[in-house]
Amino acid sequence: MITAETNNLQGSSKRPNWKKCYILANHWKSDLEFYREELRHLHHIINSYSIWIVKEDNQHLLETMERKLYQTRTMCEELIHRVSTHVMDLGRYVEKDTLKASARLTDIHTALGKDITAFVHSYRNCRKEIFSNTETILDTEKDVAIISRD
């Protein structure tokens, strides 16, 4: 993923290239929108399995996964909003090609890059945990279904 550091914003002696920042921020927004769709799909997977869950331990595990998924989706939505606002701000500076407020925008850009990196890490952990727990739940519920049929 492209970050603010790869765009030479931090510690740069020359003024930031607003066009590069604008393009990078749009890439971030596109990536975040993809993650939002992935999170919706994960939520759908959890809901699809929840109706078949019999064991109480598995129900608690599903509830925990839903909470983590909700937190991750909330973080994603917040970042999409922040990046959208940032893109609009950058758009004004691309049009004007000005130095005014460059330190503030550079700081915001760098902070967003770090926050998005943290989100991606959180998203990957959440997704890995959901798939792992779903597999565990399916295996234990399959055992319950086999026992109840006999």
How would you briefly describe this protein structure?
Helices cover 81% and strands 0% of the residues. It has 150 residues and is mostly helical.
Question: Would you kindly provide a written description of the structure presented here, covering whatever features stand out?
Answer:
The protein has helices at residues 18-50, 56-96, 102-149. The protein is an all-alpha fold and 150 residues long. Mean pLDDT is 84; it is low at 2-6.
Describe the protein's topology.
Layout: H1 18-50, H2 56-96, H3 102-149
Low-pLDDT ranges: 2-6
Oligomerization = single chain
The DSSP helix count reads 3
The total domain count is 1
Kindly provide the radius of gyration, computed on alpha-carbon positions and rounded to a whole number of angstroms.
Answer: 21 Å
CA-CA gap between termini: 52 Å
| Beta-strand share of residues | under 5%
Number of E-type strands: 0
Characteristics of this structure?
single chain; about 150 residues; mainly alpha; about 80% helix; rod-shaped
